[in-house]
Amino acid sequence: MTTFVHFEITAADVEAIAGFYAEALGLVATPSPFLPGYTLLGNAAGPLGAVMDRKFQSQSTIVWFGVEDIEASLAAIVAAGGRQAGDINAIPGQGRLAYASDPNGTIFGLKQAENR
């Protein structure tokens, strides 16, 4: 089953934009221990999304979906007319991640949890 898991907002000044969301919405901004230029936004329940440097992706907002099998999901995306948009990467303790795009070119993310 596919679920919504995360959002990313891209910015030229990650610190300033993460600070804006922290101040305006009462979120906690925490720089990622894994990736410079990537700041997690969250609340007491945990991370909700992130602000990341535009050098990673130029699209202003990216939605992430949780999937059970990232390879099968990417194959289904390609079969439906989309494309894989980069390599599959792993984040320790989190899982495997990849970007894809729909036929319109809109980038979105896929996350396969580590404990599948």
From TrEMBL:
SUPFAM superfamilies per the UniProt record, alphabetical: Glyoxalase/Bleomycin resistance protein/Dihydroxybiphenyl dioxygenase
A Pfam family it matches: Glyoxalase_6
Top-level taxon of the source organism: Bacteria
InterPro entries: Anthracycline_SecMetBiosynth, Glyas_Bleomycin-R_OHBP_Dase, Glyoxalase_6, VOC_core
Domain VOC residue range list: 3-113
Name of this protein: VOC domain-containing protein
Source organism per UniProt: Devosia elaeis
